[in-house]
Amino acid sequence: MFSSFRRHYLDLFLSRTEFSGDVLDVGGKNENRKGSFRPPLERCRSWRTVNIDPKASPDFLASADALPNPNSSADHVLLAETLEHLAFPEKALAEAFRVLRPGGTLILTMPFLYPLHGDPEDYQRWTPEKFRRVLLSLGFEAIEVLPMGGLWAVIHDVFEAYCQYHYVLNLRLALPLRAIRKVFRFGGMRNFFLALDSRLVAKESICTGYFVKARKRI
Asked: Which of 64, 158, 195, 204 is the most buried (most CB within 10 A)?
């Protein structure tokens, strides 16, 4: 099954994250998960999900800006590809700060140079300066903002989205786009793009998105 480079990097970064203790996965799903990453339950005391979609079978059916969890009850709060879908993301981050234990870790990801994808809505893209400014104002420290993927990953994913869009709107473009798309999706070409992407120094200004870590002040 086709996977975007954005999803490739998302799974890669999450798999390298050292989760432990009590984890609250805000926007996470127990059903219909995307990608290959799965919670490392063997390393965690608990892993609970929060979602407004009942089809996701979350542990807590609630919104990200009004979490039902007690103060200082989580060691990690995860917001993976969630903030861009929220009308009031700062409120969600304030809630994440509230439920984290002192010294607890916030992990979040957000796309940047990536097509709009409503789920159900898509409201924003943040820059590294925006992440740092908002998180510092809420009381977080040790903030890291890492770019995910570079120029070739961006080109690949934007072209894939362009093909999907024009298949619907312009049938005359369907055949040539389908031919080029097959080349892009061919396993060897996909690996070639990944190799090209890995050779470039990751740039904050040209990337598929950001991986952010921050710690709640003790």
From this structure: 64
Residue given tokens 């362009």 in the structure block: 162
Tokens of 53: 């979609």
Q: How far apart are the first and last CA of the chain?
A: 44
Three-state SS string over the chain comes to: CCCCHHHHHHHHHHHCCCCCEEEEEECCCCCCCCCCCCCCHHHEEEEEEEECCHHHCCCEECCCCCCCCCCCCEEEEEEECCHHHCCCHHHHHHHHHHHEEEEEEEEEEEECCCCCCCCCCCCCCCCHHHHHHHHHHHCEEEEEEEEECCHHHHHHHHHHHHHHHHHHHCHHHHHHHHHHHHHHHCHHHHHHHHHHHHHCCCCCCCCCEEEEEEEECC
Which residues lie closer than 8 Å to 6 by C-beta, 6 or more apart? 111, 114, 148, 149, 153, 157, 208, 209
Q: Residue written as tokens 């300066």?
A: 129
